[in-house]
Design brief:
heterodimer, A: alpha/beta, Rossmann fold, six-stranded mixed beta sheet, 22 strands, about 35% helix, B: mainly alpha, ABC transporter involved in vitamin B12 uptake, BtuC, 12 helices, 2 strands
Chain lengths: ~525, ~300
């Protein structure tokens, strides 16, 4: 840590920030209940909690988006008032939002310059801004091209633009709101390198997450929130993942669900060298074949963008198969209409649950019967049977522990975990023969993740054929009976879980066959 | 007779009137470009133009001062823009529908004022031709480009000016970002409401000038509904031009050249049914729009009212 009080960006550093007794009430909810929180220069303080625990509320208060009902904020031991993002920016507080605040059609430099006074009066001074970006990027080890358009950048690079934007505006304390949620493992490593560098330089970082291994890896201290209350603050070195998980959820959490014994049965879903295109016009799948049997979970592992989305869409009829055949219980379903395929009892838990799994503006009840609304008892002769739908919905809300004020609540008002429970309830309650689950736990908190995994295992034990697409290797290894690794639209190999190791899968995911790779090394 | 079309005099005539006829489209469509770039679709252009038409004509007729007429059209257009801004920004009304409302208001109001204040069709002496020294003497080219009235020159100067403002100034940066991601702009302290007020009022002012160019520079009369869909074509030209001033210029020229051609076909008495001839520019617009559809994406926040999350 530097002794100087000046940061490499030329700004004075913030020695300490303290939030005291912060209380925020929303109608019917105590979102933050007398919470104390502090962060010092040169540390990463992790803020851990489930969705709805009050992490975001606390940080929105710090960033000036909400006004607290009670409590005070002290910066370097002096009370400050923060009533808008402009106030917090002026105090040296920056925030990296979970959903990036970038304009995709503008360049990096234009995004950084937006809203700032220009050295050339009414004209933009992008050359000047670009130069300063390059300087900052050099100081902080961030690779970024100021002239690139934001839409051309990967998600990881876009996040770097957000960090540059905050540094350019003189942030010495940075709030990172679930910064890893959208990143690949490699990008997470890069982000952590950047964060470590910033901490060494004297920045103070607040890291919001619900991913325990990341919190353990990057933070110096950790504060756990639950239901708007602070459970405690500890030095990270004095805790374990298990402690933190139990703290967060308020009970014992099992990381790896009990899988029970396997009864593998007949082939339910069979793919015979299917090929299809991708949205970019390039080949999406280049001849994929595998079977999924009753009573097994086939995991599809791979780095994002290697054909996982195309695979799910090709099977469900959402994407045209250009050659090859898909069989469901022996019948050819290639290129049937999606409705005809699901009617054969194939259930689909889509990757983009808010976009493809739900109609946000519809109520829970309407979403629950999206698939089956044209069948009895949900409708008769073209008229909806609202009573039947209500009864069905209430039953599922209870059975799947969906936290919602009522069945008439709009889907958009539920948390991510509860939305996924609604999708699960709809897809699983019809007793499907085949379940296709794409990234079913992405972005969910521990409690919801655990629940979704249990449900998938239970379906497998009941005899369903489950195909699980996931980019989370831990999840693949925890749930799958067999693991197919997909790389550039092809299946590299299918390995039984008993012999699969992360190293082996990692090589396959990079397109290297372990034996061949070994040969090359020799 | 068809061969008449290819004589030098006629070709120069077609091109010169094509250049002239693009004037109202340019003012209206460049104004609309600013609005749409900031995320506001203004379908009321036609109504703003009609009121601008009338205001310019009536003031010019009664005062005898064309510049006062032009100013009146600008003020009326700006006031219509102010009302549109209030309805779409503050009240967050659906933009397409409220735009149609403003169109109908302008249509009815200009008719009512015409009947109350004038009653019969009259003419004024509009802006005179302003020959540019030397340049207007170039054979052919001089007649086509440099022997027009001042509002025509203004329309063509507006194009590079609009390009410059949108792409080289901080204001332009704000306009573009507000139209693409107002949340991002807001998070950096840019007032989305203020930017949109500015672009909508600017658009209204330019629509007013577009109307004035018809009634006191090109046709020099006022008739009920004399724009006859011109404002809607201007909106289409913004899509056609892919939200770029020079693209809008290309579209306006294509449209007005075909329009000029069909006028000359009628003047020369070439046996094409006049209804078919009059249809030509419109059919062409539809064909070109279909052919160029989805070539460029519209501003992401177009037609979406902005509201802060909490």
């Amino acid at each position: 840590m530097t002794e100087s009080r000046i940061l490499p960006s030329g700004k004075t550093r913030i020695e300490s920030l303290e939030m005291r007794g912060i209380t925020k009430r929303f109608p019917g909810v105590l979102a933050s209940d007398h919470v104390n929180f502090d962060v010092k220069t040169g540390e990463v303080h992790a803020l851990l909690g489930e969705n709805g625990a009050g992490k975001s509320t606390l940080m929105k208060i710090l960033y000036g988006l909400y006004r607290p009902d009670e409590g005070e904020v002290l910066l370097d031991d002096k009370p400050v008032t923060i009533s808008s993002p402009n106030d917090s920016i002026n105090l040296g507080i920056g925030m990296i939002h979970q959903h990036f605040m970038l304009v995709p059609t503008l360049t990096v430099a234009e995004n950084v310059a937006l809203g700032l006074p220009s050295s050339r009066g009414v004209l933009t001074d992008l050359d000047h801004v670009s130069k300063r970006i390059v300087d900052l990027a050099k100081i902080y080890g961030l690779k970024i091209d100021p002239d690139a358009y934001v839409w051309q950048l990967s998600v990881g690079q876009q996040q770097r633009v957000e960090i540059i934007k905050a540094l350019y505006r003189g942030a010495s304390l940075l709030i990172l709101d679930e910064p890893t949620a959208v990143l690949t493992p490699q990008e997470v490593d890069e982000l952590f390198t950047i964060m470590n560098q910033m901490v060494r330089d004297g920045h103070a970082l607040i890291f919001i997450s619900h991913k325990l291994h990341e919190v353990v890896e990057i933070s110096h201290r950790v504060t756990v929130l639950r239901d708007g209350r602070k459970i405690g603050t500890r030095p990270t070195s004095e805790t374990t993942k298990q402690d933190l998980a139990n703290w967060m959820v308020g009970r014992e959490v099992g990381f790896i669900p009990d899988r029970g014994t396997q009864n593998m049965g007949e082939v339910r879903l069979s793919l015979d060298t299917i090929k299809c295109g991708s949205d970019r016009g390039t080949p999406g799948l280049r001849g994929v074949s595998f079977d999924v049997c009753s009573g097994e979970i086939l995991g599809i592992a791979g780095v994002s963008g290697n054909g996982q989305r195309e695979l799910a869409e090709a099977i469900t009829g959402l994407r045209r198969v250009t050659s090859g055949k898909v069989y469901l219980e022996g019948q050819d379903i290639t290129n049937l209409a999606p409705g005809d395929i699901t009617d054969r009892m194939l259930s689909y838990i889509p990757e983009e649950r808010m976009r493809d799994g739900m109609i946000k503006e519809f109520t829970i009840a309407e979403n629950m019967v999206l698939r089956e609304h044209h069948k009895q008892p949900y409708s008769r002769n073209g008229f909806l049977n609202l009573r039947g739908i209500a009864a069905h919905t209430d039953k599922l809300i209870q059975q799947f522990q969906v936290k919602t004020p009522s069945r008439d609540t709009h889907a958009k008002n539920l948390s991510g975990g509860n939305i996924q429970k609604v999708v699960l309830a709809r897809e699983i309650s019809r007793n499907p023969r085949v379940i296709l689950a794409a990234q079913p736990t992405r972005g969910l908190d521990i409690g919801a993740t655990e629940y979704v995994r249990e449900q998938l295992i239970e379906q497998r034990n009941k005899g369903a054929a489950v195909m699980l697409v996931s980019e989370d290797l831990d999840e693949i290894l925890a749930l799958s009976d067999r693991i197919a690794v997909i790389y550039e639209g092809q299946v590299m190999d299918i390995v039984p879980r008993e012999i699969a190791t992360p190293q082996m899968l990692g090589l396959l995911m990079a397109g290297v066959h372990p034996e061949e790779g070994a040969r090359v090394v020799k | 007779m068809i061969t008449d079309l290819f004589s030098a005099t006629v070709l120069i005539g077609i091109l010169a009137s094509g250049i002239r006829l693009a004037t109202p489209y340019l003012y209206a469509a460049i104004g609309e470009t600013f609005g749409q770039k900031s995320g506001v679709l203004n379908l009321g252009v036609e109504g703003q133009m009609l009121l601008g038409c009338f205001a310019a004509f009536y003031v010019a007729l009664t005062t005898g001062n064309l510049w006062l007429g032009l100013l009146a059209a600008m003020v009326v257009g700006a006031l219509m823009g102010l009302a549109m801004a209030y309805v779409t920004v503050n009240l967050q009304a659906q933009q397409g529908i409220s735009g149609i409302g403003f169109y109908l208001f302008g249509l009815g109001m200009s008719e009512l004022l015409f009947q109350r204040l004038m009653g019969t069709v009259e003419t004024v002496k509009g802006f005179p031709k302003l020959s540019i020294p030397v340049l207007s003497g170039i054979p052919g080219v001089g007649e086509i480009f440099f022997n027009q009235n001042i509002l025509v020159y203004g329309a063509y100067l507006l194009v590079p000016l609009a390009w410059f403002v949108l792409n080289k100034t901080t204001l332009g940066l704000k306009i573009r970002s507000v139209g693409e991601n107002p949340d991002a702009a807001d998070s950096l302290g840019v007032s989305v409401a203020r930017v949109r007020y500015f672009t909508i009022i600017l658009g209204g002012t330019l629509s007013g000038i577009a109307g004035a160019s018809l009634s006191i520079a090109l046709l020099n009369v006022f008739q009920q509904n004399m724009t006859s869909g011109l404002g809607f074509i201007a909106v289409a030209l913004v899509y056609f031009g892919a939200w770029r001033p020079f693209g809008v210029l290309g579209g306006a020229l294509l449209f007005s050249m075909v329009n000029s051609l069909q006028l000359w076909i009628q003047v020369l008495g070439i046996p094409v049914p006049s209804d078919i001839a009059v249809m030509m520019p419109y059919v062409l617009t539809i064909l070109v729009l279909v052919a160029t559809v989805s070539r460029v994406r519209a501003p992401s926040a177009l037609t979406k009212p902005f509201e802060r999350e909490n």
